[in-house]
């Protein structure tokens, strides 16, 4: 560990600044629980800070110059922000790259079903999760419903205090003797991570025309089909008596969102923990909430980025999707979105050529801003103490990640990390180095190795997290503050 716990070093002014940052972060995390919500919130903050859409600038044929501020968004789930520097872009960009997706439960395309007069939503978990952690906790539904007519409806149920919440059920202790003999990873299966959403059957009545109708909770009749069109009265009655709880759920969704059951086919609905980000600990030194991997680094990267005006080198805050499943797809770091955005930026600055673009990417320096594992003394056997990250000791640098024999890692260049160390010390930023647990126990990865394919210098730099990938993750407010300051120092450091 070596250095003092940073909490012991702060002045009153620093503590005031730290607490203000933590409050803003809690507000951000309460608002943002999906990658779409993250992009929406970042665009709001960037626009307020004077950033303009790169797409609009391209469409209007406008030119850019040093000091100009722009952002680019792709599919509403990944984005990059740039501040144009005074040096030519081909001399390199200072990049803070974080991901804004987090482990969760996604709805399958045909999710809604009824079983013994209970309605469930069928899910497919996203990213690495301990499945048992997702049972018996309050859950919310966030996402969008894209309809065939082109309209897109935002959905958020479970966050307002007047909203209902949902949960994945678990077997009561009185009947779980067999379940308790299973291995921890087998006790809850992926197919049993279904979300309970209803148990009240719809009330079926006939209206004045003899048409079958439902009565919603406000007592308003809603037509659900005609007996005349459904065949014989006997067949109609038989059909009407089936899956009445599911029908009630669909009637409510229809009334609130104009949604038909088939609209699930083109919906992106995510099941996430319900509730606000909260202070944790009697001393209020920590923050507890969902999704801190990796939105804690996205937030601090953005906050640092927005503070740097008129940089020498062009600066970038890159926020990507799909990291938790390998950075794949059109919105993951492996897509060409970032490269294309840099090309458009250089073109608007009158600096583009294919060779200049390649030089810009190869000459860039990046912090892959992703979280690290905080040392947990209750599970000390999983860590190697000399190479572990500790709360209150600042931003964590992982020179390499990967697993076991550094498989899948980006192993940062020694000369580059020496420059990073100097930048941190010059700015009086607390930092520590770590590995992700003992060598043979596990490991992990980030977007670092993907950006390094361009030949640029990249090292992982993030915040230590307890309970990583669980519905409730924990970070230190001190580390939040030090990480923000570290990102500012990186963006402004001399060569």
Based on the model shown, name its key terms.
single chain, 495 residues, alpha+beta, Aminopeptidase, Aminopeptidase i, Domain 2, 2 domains, 9-stranded mixed beta sheet, 7-stranded antiparallel beta sheet, 11 helices, 25% strand
Helix-strand blueprint:
Elements lengths: L11 H20 L3 H14 L3 E2 H7 L8 E6 L3 E6 L10 E6 L4 E12 L2 E9 L12 E8 L5 E6 L9 E2 L26 E4 L4 E4 L5 E4 L5 E5 L7 H8 L3 H14 L9 E7 L4 E3 L5 E4 L2 H16 L7 E6 L16 H12 L5 H10 L1 E4 L3 E2 L21 E4 L3 E2 L10 H13 L4 E3 L9 E2 L3 H4 L5 E6 L1 E2 L7 E4 H16 L3
Parallel strand pairs: 1-2, 4-17, 4-18, 18-24, 19-25, 20-22
Antiparallel strand pairs: 2-3, 3-17, 5-6, 5-14, 6-10, 7-8, 7-14, 9-10, 11-12, 12-13, 15-16, 16-26, 20-24, 21-23
Summarize it:
The protein is of the alpha+beta class and 495 residues long. The protein is built from 11 helices and 26 strands.
When the domains are counted, the total is: 2
Query: In terms of quaternary structure, what is this?
Result: single chain
Terminal residue distance = 28 Å
Which fold name corresponds to the CATH topology of the largest domain?
Answer: Aminopeptidase
Name of the top-level CATH class of the largest domain:
Alpha Beta
Low-confidence stretches: 217-234
Biggest β-sheet strands, sense, barrel: 9 strands, mixed
What amount of the residues lies in strands? Answer: 15-25%
Coarse morphology: globular
Average pLDDT works out at 92
CATH 4th-level superfamily of the largest domain: Zn peptidases
| CATH architecture assignment name of the largest domain | 3-Layer(aba) Sandwich
Give the fraction of residues assigned to helices.
25-40%
Number of strands: 26
**Main sheet: strand order:** 1-2-3-17-4-18-24-20-22
Radius of gyration: 25 Å
Secondary structure tally, helices? 11
Class inferred from helices and paired strands: alpha+beta
């Amino acid at each position: 560990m070596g250095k003092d716990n940073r909490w012991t070093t702060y002045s009153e002014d620093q503590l005031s600044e730290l607490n203000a940052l933590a409050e803003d972060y809690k507000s951000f995390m309460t608002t943002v629980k999906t990658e779409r919500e993250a992009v929406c919130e970042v665009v709001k903050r960037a626009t307020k800070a004077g950033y303009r859409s790169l797409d609009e600038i391209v469409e209007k044929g406008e030119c850019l110059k040093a000091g100009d501020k722009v952002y680019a968004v792709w599919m509403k789930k990944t984005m990059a922000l740039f501040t144009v520097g005074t040096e030519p872009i081909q001399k390199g960009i200072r990049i803070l790259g974080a991901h804004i997706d987090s482990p969760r439960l996604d709805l399958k395309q045909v999710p809604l079903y009824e079983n013994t007069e209970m309605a469930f939503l069928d899910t497919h978990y996203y990213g690495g999760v301990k499945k048992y952690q997702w049972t018996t906790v309050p859950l919310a539904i966030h996402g969008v419903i894209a309809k065939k007519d082109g309209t897109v409806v935002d959905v958020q149920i479970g966050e307002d205090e007047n909203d209902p919440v949902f949960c994945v059920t678990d077997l009561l202790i009185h009947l779980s003797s067999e379940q308790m003999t299973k291995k921890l990873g087998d006790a809850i299966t992926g197919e049993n991570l279904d979300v309970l959403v209803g148990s009240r059957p719809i009330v079926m009545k006939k209206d004045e025309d003899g048409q079958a109708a439902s009565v919603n909770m406000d007592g308003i009749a809603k037509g659900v089909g005609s007996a005349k069109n459904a065949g014989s009265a006997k067949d109609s009655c038989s059909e009407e008596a089936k899956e009445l709880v599911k029908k009630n759920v669909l009637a409510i969704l229809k009334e609130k969102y104009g949604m038909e059951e088939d609209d699930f086919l083109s919906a992106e609905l995510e099941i996430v923990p319900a509730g606000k980000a909260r202070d944790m600990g009697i001393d209020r030194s920590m923050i507890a909430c969902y999704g801190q991997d990796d939105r804690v680094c996205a937030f601090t990267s953005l906050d640092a980025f927005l503070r740097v005006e008129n940089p020498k080198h062009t600066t970038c805050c890159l926020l990507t999707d799909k990291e938790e499943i390998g950075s794949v797809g059109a919105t993951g770091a492996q897509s060409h979105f970032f490269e294309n955005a840099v090309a458009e930026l250089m073109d608007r600055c009158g600096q583009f050529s294919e060779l200049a673009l390649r030089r810009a990417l190869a000459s860039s320096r990046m912090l892959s801003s992703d979280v690290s594992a905080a040392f947990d003394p209750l599970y000390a056997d999983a860590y190697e103490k000399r190479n572990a990250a500790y709360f209150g000791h600042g931003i964590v640098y992982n020179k390499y990640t990967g697993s076991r024999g550094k498989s899948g890692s980006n192993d940062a260049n020694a000369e580059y990390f020496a420059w990073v160390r100097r930048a941190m010390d010059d700015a009086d930023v607390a930092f520590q180095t770590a590995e992700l647990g003992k060598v043979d126990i596990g490991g992990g990865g980030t977007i670092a190795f993907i950006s390094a394919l361009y030949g640029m210098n990249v090292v992982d730099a993030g915040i230590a997290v307890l309970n990583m990938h669980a519905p409730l993750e924990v970070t230190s407010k001190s580390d939040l503050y030090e990480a923000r300051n570290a990102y500012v120092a990186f963006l402004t450091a001399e060569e």
